[in-house]
Amino acid sequence: MDYSESTSLEGRDVQPPHYTIKIETFSALLKDSIEKYSFCDFEAGGYKWKMSIYPNGKKKRFAGNCISLFLSLVETSSLPPGWEINAIFKLFIYDQLRDKYFTLQDDKVRRFHAMKMEWGVANFINLDKFTDPSNGFLVDDACVFGAEVLVLKSTRKGDCLSMLEQPITSNYVWRVKSFSTLTSDRYDSDPFIAGDYKWRIRLFPRGNGEGKGNSISAFLFLDESTLPPETKVFAKFTLGLIDQINGEHFDTYHDYLFGRSDNNWGSQKFCPLVKLNDVKRGLLVDNGCNVEARVTVLGTVNTV
User: Fold this and answer.
1) CA–CA separation, 293 vs 252, rounded Å?
2) What stretches in the chain show pLDDT beneath 50?
3) pTM value > 0.70
4) CA–CA distance from 114 to each of 4, 75, 79, 117 (Å)?
């Protein structure tokens, strides 16, 4: 909504940086019953603007007793669909006796868009106050108005989370053989499918990071080649070791948002080596272990 009434005007020495207009023979605008006069376009913040004056007031309740000033955004045809410009602006009137520019002290952000391209002040200044010679706003039937526009550049990023109504869980078991003879730092399982995406288990037999030398480290990896652009996958998953004697599981539980730059998650201390090598636990049998992944894709996040 527009300002319905102005509060008190406050003066400053600095001239409006973006636009000023001097009107000579202002009385002619009143005499000729000019409802609205729009001044020339000016540029601020990379956009084109136009200031307009309603010499007899814009709204009926102010007609004949005030001046209305408004600012509008122009030349919007080249802007993208759904465009929106946020700006803080000030409209000024010049006191020619004291060399000061008076404006309303209002720093609210105004949202310009296709349905609302004009904002302003319906009761910017009372006509009696404007025409009073002692105030210096109208001297020799001439006056000066101005505008200052600060465009707020948006760095906003928007995401849309789409949750699946009926998520499906996929299980995959990787048989790791000859565990004690594994010499590489890491090993990857064959790919498996969960929720239309390819995944792998990555295992560090002697640990990684905080688990190095004391634990197995295990991670779930998303194959980013199966990920559409600007998309992330929200999943909950379990990485576990199967107890081959008692049929029980040693599990870790996670949920994570997988993307191209962050396509893996897991545990550096997945299973202590002491526990793995404890024959009673049945995690390592015949020098082999079974690593299981249970993956449920819950939804996707798309950039909008």
Assistant:
1) 10
2) 1-6
3) no
4) 22, 11, 10, 6
